[in-house]
């Protein structure tokens, strides 16, 4: 017999509740909707990673900023933080907090991309596509969390966070380099976390 949609959400919520508190996610992994969500968003994350890599190539080609180890000393002056994703590592994995951290990170990087847009005015289209994909990924995760009965945070459409200020054009360029490098690492962790859920 088909389970009504509300019943399914309650069932998934109960399963995830158990999973978050030490029980295996095996029951959830068999759910087709959840697997479909994971597959779709693994693809989405892969596409976003490709777009970030394309921007990194532009920064390398046009600004000659290609190697992170050559810029480490400048980085110390810039105070560019990495969005946390410690709840998405296997050792401490918790689905609810991992999803929340992915969404919070996407929100932070969505705003940070204004720095990239100012740096690469000729590539506004790519930056805007990336921002749109990030907003869609965040909203997909929010929808899935709501379907599972998990708490979500609503972020304002316009990012009110203050962007980093740079003391020179060179610092702005290096700042853009590290924003993209940090974002790429963030996406790799998020991708691994989603893939980890498909294998449970």
UniProtKB/TrEMBL annotation:
PROSITE patterns according to UniProt: INTERLEUKIN_6
Record keywords, A-Z: Disulfide bond, Glycoprotein, Growth factor, Secreted, Signal
GO terms of molecular function: cytokine activity; granulocyte colony-stimulating factor receptor binding; growth factor activity
Main location as per UniProt: secreted
Domain of life: Eukaryota
Gene Ontology annotations of biological process type: immune response; positive regulation of myeloid cell differentiation
Transmembrane segments: none
Record's keyword annotation contains Plastid: no
Localization per record: Secreted
Signal peptide limits: 1-22
CC terms in the record's Gene Ontology section: extracellular region
Family: Belongs to the IL-6 superfamily.
Name of the molecule in the record: MGF factor
Organism: Copsychus sechellarum
């Amino acid at each position: 017999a088909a389970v009504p949609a509300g019943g399914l959400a309650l069932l998934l919520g109960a399963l995830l509740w158990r999973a978050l508190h030490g029980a295996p996610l095996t029951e959830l992994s068999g759910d087709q909707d959840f697997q479909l969500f994971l597959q779709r968003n693994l693809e989405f994350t892969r596409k976003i990673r490709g777009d970030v890599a394309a921007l990194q190539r532009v920064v390398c080609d046009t600004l000659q900023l290609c190697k992170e180890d050559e810029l480490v000393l400048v980085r110390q002056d810039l105070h560019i933080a990495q969005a946390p994703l410690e709840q998405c590592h296997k050792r401490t994995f918790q689905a609810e907090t991992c999803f929340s951290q992915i969404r919070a990170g996407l929100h932070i990087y969505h705003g940070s991309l204004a720095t990239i847009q100012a740096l690469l005015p000729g590539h506004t289209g790519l930056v805007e596509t990336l921002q749109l994909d990030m907003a869609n990924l965040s909203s997909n995760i929010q929808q899935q969390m709501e379907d599972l009965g998990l708490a979500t945070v609503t972020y304002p459409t316009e990012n009110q966070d203050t962007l980093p200020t740079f003391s020179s054009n060179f610092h702005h360029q290096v700042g853009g380099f590290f924003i993209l490098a940090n974002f790429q690492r963030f996406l790799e962790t998020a991708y691994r976390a989603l893939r980890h859920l498909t294998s449970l």
